[in-house]
């Protein structure tokens, strides 16, 4: 597992998702290196619809690999503002670039500071060991 | 040798276990054995594609090995297992089934006919002890049934480049599909059988247990120049599902007979006797469900036990389902009511969502095993 990376500028959930807080208050969400490695080759992704309102912990999509399927959980409460359409044709981006082109969706949290309550990188790494 | 069945004891280890650990493979339980599912630098899709396009090498040492030896051993096996061993000559192997008297499948296995007095069997890992127990209980005096699970390893080399790979080790190639040669590699005996579970041209090698690591190392090095790689049981499962090959415990079981699984081609119906003959003959006249292939036309991957509906009515369930790396679509094997025909559209309940699929006759991808 030592070759898996966890950027220090992200927040993390215990469900192995990452959250990047943007300057405009919108957050971007994806799954961690750990999650994509555990899933194996991702072959399908279904995502929430833009405009959906979600509550933290809601199942709002699925990420499916050759071996298994996992729910995509909303890390925060808020409104979905964008989804990564590239994953439709290239779900493998989640494996090859989980923090970059493999992002899943964006949302505007109802509480702008809510992301600060999620784990930082040290907390997430500690949770994996 | 009952440890393989208990499941609560510590996992059994392949003779290549330390090789898999050194390669960083993801390991998982398979029939009581701790086996590689996929390797770093590969992954199910890349390993699958290597086999379809080039070559891959698999450790399948969890498979059972057993022998039936003594005067008339082949006749004895022929009176127990379903397929007709008299259809093949010594030096050939045959896919066959071990049924119980009700026609349920205890296991599916490969029988290697060495001579009239010597039959070598490759059952599934979890069922070996039970197959051996049943044969031993039925064996007449003079015929010995031995469980050799830990006496041999099994390494599969599968893909169009498998001949070149074996030739680079000085091993025999080019013999007919389902035939085997007892060869020698660096002074060590190894059986080279033209068999496999992938649908590609390929071989399964049976070295002695202690010789397996050196042979594995040589094969892993030998596949590399051909763009091949070690492949785990994850890719083995997607490869076999694309072929429609059944997996015991999912597509064949004590509850899924060869009639239902449409494995009747592996039953010697004209033989005087085999275990389960009367029950299977009766069922054959009036099967209640039959194995079909499902090719998903929408988005979604059917998994085992997903319900299948036709015209709004449940007509059966999926027994094996996966993503086909070759077709980039969901595929499945499903037991359906006999009235549902090939070409019809059904709906698979994938976690509450209806996914459309077409009923088809497997294989989903063209079989290459007999390619010259």
Automatic annotation (TrEMBL), chain A:
Coiled coil regions in record: none
Keyword Transferase applies: no
Cofactor note: Binds 1 lipoyl cofactor covalently.
InterPro entries: 2-oxoA_DH_lipoyl-BS, Biotin_lipoyl, GCV_H, GCV_H/Fam206, GCV_H_sub, Single_hybrid_motif
Highest taxon in the source lineage: Bacteria
UniProt KW keywords: Lipoyl
CDD domains per UniProt: GCS_H (cd06848)
Cellular component GO terms, alphabetical: cytosol; glycine cleavage complex
Annotated TM spans: none
Domain Lipoyl-binding, residue spans: 26-108
Keyword Lyase: no
Cofactor(s) the protein requires to work: (R)-lipoate
Record-level GO BP terms: glycine decarboxylation via glycine cleavage system; protein lipoylation
Residue(s) carrying N6-lipoyllysine: 67
Signal peptide boundaries: none
Record Pfam families: GCV_H (PF01597)
PANTHER family found in the cross-reference section: GLYCINE CLEAVAGE SYSTEM H PROTEIN, GLYCINE CLEAVAGE SYSTEM H PROTEIN-RELATED
Function: The glycine cleavage system catalyzes the degradation of glycine. The H protein shuttles the methylamine group of glycine from the P protein to the T protein.
Self-association state and partner proteins as the record states: The glycine cleavage system is composed of four proteins: P, T, L and H.
Similarity comment: family membership: Belongs to the GcvH family.
The protein's name: Glycine cleavage system H protein
Gene field: gcvH
From TrEMBL, chain B:
GO biological process, one term: methylation
Protein's UniProt keywords contain Transferase: yes
Record EC number: 2.1.2.10
Aminomethyltransferase C-terminal domain span: 292-365
Residues covered by the GCVT N-terminal domain: 16-271
UniProt GO cellular component terms: cytosol; glycine cleavage complex
Pfam families with a match to the protein in the record: GCV_T (PF01571), GCV_T_C (PF08669)
GO molecular function per UniProt: aminomethyltransferase activity; methyltransferase activity; transaminase activity
Catalytic EC class: transferase
Residues given in the record as substrate binding sites: 204
Keywords: Aminotransferase, Methyltransferase, Transferase
Reactions catalysed: N(6)-[(R)-S(8)-aminomethyldihydrolipoyl]-L-lysyl-[protein] + (6S)-5,6,7,8-tetrahydrofolate = N(6)-[(R)-dihydrolipoyl]-L-lysyl-[protein] + (6R)-5,10-methylene-5,6,7,8-tetrahydrofolate + NH4(+)
Superkingdom as given in the UniProt entry: Bacteria
HAMAP family: GcvT
Function: The glycine cleavage system catalyzes the degradation of glycine.
NCBIfam families, sorted: gcvT, PRK00389.1
Quaternary structure and interacting proteins, as annotated: The glycine cleavage system is composed of four proteins: P, T, L and H.
Family: Belongs to the GcvT family.
Protein name: Aminomethyltransferase
Organism, scientific name: Humibacillus xanthopallidus
Gene name for this UniProt entry: gcvT
